[in-house]
Amino acid sequence: MVREALRGYASQMSALAEDLISTSRRNRESLAVLVRHEVEQAVRRLGLAGNADVDELTRRVRDLERAVRELKAQKTAGGTPS
């Protein structure tokens, strides 16, 4: 009888621990989203470029660098840019 009661308590404790871990994980994820949002808002208020802006500018610079290389290659080959 005592063993059965202990097994029942152990089962309850295990379920409680799993619930706490699950809740903790959700809370941690929610906190990360909240902190990310607050940092993005602070960056905007300061007038700094966000990740999306930096990514877009990086892409544009790479496109321009590629165009310059192509123009140099055409000039070296004696061609004229179109």
Explain briefly what this protein structure is.
The chain is mainly α and 82 residues long.
Shape: elongated
- Poorly predicted runs are none
In percent terms, what proportion of residues is strand? under 5%
How is the main sheet built?
none
Helix content: over 70%
- Give the strand tally: 0
Number of helices: 2
Give an overview of the whole structure.
The longest helix is centred in the N-terminal third of the chain and has 45 residues, at 2-46. 87% of the residues lie in helices and 0% in strands. It has two helices and no strands. The chain has 82 residues and is mainly alpha-helical. It folds into two domains: 1-48; 49-82. It is elongated, with a radius of gyration of 29 Å.
Question: Layout of helices and strands, plus pairs?
Answer:
Elements: H1 2-46, H2 51-76
Descriptive terms for the model:
single chain, 82 residues, mainly alpha, 2 helices, elongated
